[in-house]
Amino acid sequence: MKEIYLDNNATTKVDEAVFEEMRPYLCELYGNPSSMHFFGGQVQKKVDEARKRVAALLGADPSEIIFTACGTESDNTAIRSALETFPDKRHVITTRVEHPAVLTLCRGLTKKGYRVTELGVDGAGRIDLDELRNAIDDDTAIVSVMWANNETGVVFPIEEIGAIVKERGALFHTDAVQAVGKIPLNMAASTVDMLSLSGHKLHAPKGIGILYLRKGTPFRPFLVGGHQERSRRAGTENTAAIIALGKACRMAGEWLEDENSRVLGMRDRLEKELLAIIPHSRINGGGAERLPNTLSIAFEFVEGEAILLLLSEKGICASSGSACTSGSLEPSHVLRAMGVPFTCAHGSIRFSLSRFTTDEEIDAVIRELPPVIQRLRQISPFGRELLKG
Amino acid sequence: MWDYTDKVKEHFLNPRNVGDIPDADAVGEVGSLACGDALKLFIKLDDAKERIINATFQTFGCGSAIASSSALTEMIKGKTLDEALAVTNQEIADYLGGLPEEKMHCSVMGQEALELAIVTYRGGPAPVHGHDHSHGEQEGEVVCKCFGLTDGFLRKVIEQNRLHTAEQVTHFTKAGGACGGCIPRIKDIIAQVLGEQPAVPPKKQEKLTNLRKMQLIQEVLENEVRPQLWADGGDLELVDIAGSIVQIAFRKACAGCHSSGHTAKFVEQKLRDMVSSDIVVEEVEG
Q: What's the domain range around A214?
């Protein structure tokens, strides 16, 4: 069965061209860039090129790019660094809909005596800038707000947030893991001090990320040891993955237009058709600005895992905000923070597209999903009432 | 992705006995939309009102909830009410070739609906149940407020399935799986239940030499007790053995835990069962 992969916010296919770029640096050109010989030196040159390519996508200077192992490491590094550089400041602001990489870290900080403010969101997943204005004070070390939400695709007004943060002299970090390659970024004209990016969300392999660190931002490394990354991230570079990420970032820049036209068009068509065909369905985050590739759609009175399993039988790969898929027992913290009613939260499905998505694949979902929902509603006691009524 | 057995997948993809029975003799409805799963079970009896001749279900829930419901209806058809009442959640899981532990609550939901249907049919008081949002007043202390689970229900599931850790209780009942606020209370209940359980028939009491006794005590603590404490992030250290008095000190999560008294009792019971009935456990600062 050929997979129809619509789970690109979870991870993406490594682009063949990206793989070709990294391939020689595994078996043949395996030198350590720190070495003094030519064999390491040629790898160093390629790592430098990758750094420039990443910087170009972000509108940043290459010296502002620190390679890390993943988005989670970048998030942890950014927030911990801010707290270490401002030991007297004991307040952190984030949102209730952050990725666990940020949220779990922040909640852990409360046990260490920090004050942590989690900004709420409205029904469409938007934060209230006044809540931020009221929460931020001179004690605030760092504000960390994701650029775009991984579950709903809702995009936050990063520069407006940044302006408020800068006014109070706090550091501003954004987890842009889902935004990079889908939204044009320009760090040169941004209020962001630190930004996290993950390679495997934009067709590079897993195990590589970056932390963007604005020039002049005080910093304490998370990993210490060697002098790599100008002593800001010790540890021998994952050279092949870095080179892959460089290529992936260059390609992401080239595909940005496609992402915001063709991919957006397919997402919108999928959304419109499903809403029209399936009664009692609704969009999570529908009223907000969203990423072009993400659709979070809720089907009342059915449960998400059951939907995913039946879709999986048809080769369709999506994900869910339901409790039962994750092993946790509550629906996603993002949907709960938005106040999505329980009738919908358990039956929410996320489709996330990529440049590899085709119209035929979207057609297949539009064809296969409605009978799945119908079938589960016939099994569900609530769904049966709905069908009768 | 969950590691479901072929039988779970098969029952999920082709569920048996979906629907209702308009003239059902007994109906059991548990769970709610808020909980994320719900089951409505319909039972039709023979003319003598003794034997189940038909059973159907409607389920809102995940793949294993639907498979468990389907399995349950197949299992109880042809059984007398008494035989059906004896069906345990473990038997439902076994029928499906097993469920991932995190999904055992699906089998518990099936057992609950069955018990509720039969007991109500017989005119008895509705059993003190778990996810009973739809059943009004509950008796007993509500331990898990997120899922509305009472101490009586938790006790029963802990006893029947011989659960040792709060994590297991969450997997079997969902209790503690949302805000987690009741986990200390769940640990108390586990310690109480384990303390109350009838001792495993004591090993033939041989007259132990002091050395042999000390060896046995250490073995039991190493192999039986500490692994259970580790599962909850706790630990203990054996401080001293003087005759039948065993002195222990709690470590990690157990140290300063307000239910450590129960834990000490649990350790004592284990040692009495497995080593010697005269053992006394003392908790010391160490």
A: 16-252
Show which of residues 321-380 on chain A sit within 8 Å of chain B, judged by CB atoms: 322-325, 327-331, 342-343, 346, 378-380
A73 lies within 8 A of chain B by CB: no
Q: Is the same domain home to B136 and B186? A: yes
Has residue B203 been placed in a domain?
no
> What is the DSSP annotation of A230-248?
GGTS-S---HHHHHHHHHH
Assess whether A287 and A373 both reside in one domain. yes
Residue of B nearest to A385 (CA): B58
Q: In angstroms, what CA-CA distances link A148 with A39, A99, A175, A353?
A: 41, 10, 8, 15
ipTM attached to this prediction: 0.89
| pLDDT at residue B254 in the model | 75
The answer to whether the beta carbons of residues A116 and A110 sit under 8 Å apart is yes
What residues in A contact B9, CB-CB < 8 Å? 309
* Cβ pair B177:A329 closer than 8 A: yes
What is the overall mean pLDDT for chain A?
Answer: 95
Q: pLDDT tens digits for A162-189? A: 999 999 999 999 999 999 999 999 999 9
CATH number of the domain residue B242 falls in? 3.30.300.130
Question: Which residues does chain B have within 8 Å of residue A328's beta carbon, measured at their own beta carbons?
Answer: 177
Please tell me the predicted confidence (pLDDT) of residue A328. Answer: 63
Give the CATH number, domain containing residue B30: 3.90.1010.10
Question: pLDDT category, B136, cuts 50, 70, 90?
Answer: very low
Active site residue B179: no
Binned at pLDDT 50, 70 and 90, residue A324 comes out as low
DSSP A280-335: SEEETTTTS-B-TTEEEEEETTS-HHHHHHHHHHTTEE-EE--HHHHT-SS--HHH
B26 Cα to chain A: minimum distance (Å): 16
Residues A248 and A357 in one domain: no
Question: Could you tell me if B139 and B278 lie in one domain?
Answer: no
Domain extent, residue B31, equals: 6-194
Count Cβ–Cβ pairs < 8 Å, chain A vs chain B.
77
Q: Which of A229, A252, A275 is the last residue of a domain?
A: A252
**Looking at CA atoms only, how far is residue A324 from chain B in angstroms?**
6
Domain total of chain A:
2
Interface of B with A in 6-45 (CB under 8 A): 9, 12-13, 15, 18, 20, 29, 33-34, 36-40
Which of the residue ranges A97-106, A134-143, A281-290, B153-162 would you say has the lowest mean pLDDT?
B153-162
pLDDT tens-digit readout, B197-206? 655 555 555 6
E-strand spans in B176-244? 234-242
Angle between helices B183-196 and B166-173 (to 10 degrees): 100
Which of A302, A307, A324, A348 best tests the B interface by mutation, with the highest count of B CBs <10 A? A324
Q: Which of B145, B170, B194 is the last residue of a domain?
A: B194
**Virtual CA dihedral for B169, B171, B132, A347, nearest 10 degrees?**
160
pLDDT of residue B251: 81
- Do B186 and B225 lie in one domain? The reply is no
Q: How many domains does chain B have?
A: 2
pLDDT tier at B242, thresholds 50, 70, 90? confident
Amino acid at B264: A
